[in-house]
Amino acid sequence: MLRLLSRRILLANSSAIRTANYSKNCGRTNVAVVLSGCGVYDGSEIHEAVSVLSHLTRNDASPFVFAPRIDQMHIINHSNGDEDKSSKRNVLVESARISRGDVKPLSELVENYKNFDAVVFPGGFGVAKNLSDFAVNGPKCTVHPDVVSILENCHKSRIMLGFACIAPVLAARVLCNVTITLGKESPAEDWPHKGAIEAAKSMGAIIELKEVFEVSADRENNVFSTPAYMYNGKYHEIDDGIGNMIRLMLVTLRQS
């Protein structure tokens, strides 16, 4: 019975996916959300991704989820931090766990980016392992070609970009003279990722030191960012910061 019910839900979601319409409707705010898997250590940070989606719909925006159809860099056992070498996982397939099946290949966003008012990247190590190789090569990292295309084209077209947690390093690597936040440098027990700030600076980014609930707004480049889990914080603190970023983005969009 449970298997049959799951199958019916999957078929219903699949039908919705096939008929998805990116076209801008009068009064609707379309926002693309780019995921990098499912789970903080090898994919998207789940709480950040859900927070982004929740605050978008709460504020009357329509989210569309995208992910690259590639294998993850590796699989991490989230209960003990060990690498699981027994199998491979696909970034798009794993991202579907967060979006309840409704996820599209990132290549579709490359082709349809003009139908969106904004693009948001939640954090998680998947940003540094699957959307780029920042986890391995730091400031000399390579960013996935589809991500590069989306960032460059959105930037040229003045389509708003939002980043949480470690995701601003993508903007630092691809865009010139961009202002971002990756949180603060101290105290170390609260802000354990100072190295990312130094790496972003070396890539040419201008860094604003922000608290977890604050937002960096680079209005010249139309780039918004918030620290999220760069801070060793509580669930609601991360949610509050992401909510502040999403609301500021949407207010700015609707006033323009």
TrEMBL record:
Transmembrane segments: none annotated. This is ES1 protein homolog, mitochondrial-like. The lineage of its organism: Eukaryota, Metazoa, Ecdysozoa, Arthropoda, Hexapoda.
